[in-house]
Amino acid sequence: MGKRIHIMGASGSGTSTLARAMATALATQAFDTDDFYWYPSDPPFRDKRPAAERLAMMNALFVPRADWILAGSFAGWGDPIIPRLTHVVFLSLPSGARLARLRARERRRYGRAIEPGGAQSRAFQSFLDWAMSYDDPQFTGRSRRVHDLWLEELECPVIRLDARLPVETLTAQALGALDQTRADA
To answer: What is the per-residue DSSP string for 53-118?
Structure first.
């Protein structure tokens, strides 16, 4: 039986990293919702694709396959994919740790700290403000509250992991939980 796994959590929780590690372990492909959500641009993450276009691309590239892993979040726009899911892995990580990871990721991307006052700095600060709103129960965008409500509606198993652990440990825990849900079926 195929495994179609969605790995989600707050920005900076490690969904893409875990997706790549699990894809390697399971000899399948990992995809990221950002690659479908956003049009390519410089700077990136500026222009959104319409939801219908995102879904059409995903269906053309991987959704009908027996095995795949999708990192990111499609809550609110990707509902047609839900029936294909066999498992969801939800990563949680305290906001301070996420903030540190996001800052480190930005340094890796640009090779230096973002210059204060510049356009990149303002865009990054706006992104950080959005990302840190994840834990605010009043925030109406991508948030813990929205994710928790979405997860409650799923019929497939949801595996909850603490993203403070090393990726090797998370991978082992996720794979063990996949095996357990198969044994329970």
So the answer is: HHHHHHHHHTTTSS-EEEES--TTT-GGGGGG-SEEEEEE--HHHHHHHHHHHHHHHHSSPPPTTS
